[in-house]
Amino acid sequence: MTINTKRFFRCNSRKNLLLILLVAQLAACTKSNKLKSETFKTASGWGYSIAYKDKMIIRQSIIPVISDSKSFSTEEDALKVANLVEKKLSRNISPTVTKNDLILLKIKF
């Protein structure tokens, strides 16, 4: 009795590749983002905070980059900037917000 070794290894390599892809898919789905952004009400508008593993790392009560000490006019504006900063942090990029970022996000200031 002879076994066709090429066919045997080809079938096993397909199964192994399928198993590796399945494990990679599960690992990607279970990866949790430990960053969490929230908005909060200020005396003159809205601000945002970002926490990492339930520890606050950023609390921004005024619009960054502009010369006035002014809060965000809407909760949506504060959330847009918070999401931008969260994305930058998750990509290991400096979380600095520029005036151009505010213009692209259509933030009123």
TrEMBL record:
InterPro entries: DUF4907. The keyword Signal applies. The keyword Signal applies. Keywords: Signal. It comes from the Bacteria. Residues 1-28 form the signal peptide. It holds the Pfam family DUF4907. This is DUF4907 domain-containing protein. The lineage of its organism: Bacteria, Pseudomonadati, Bacteroidota, Flavobacteriia, Flavobacteriales.
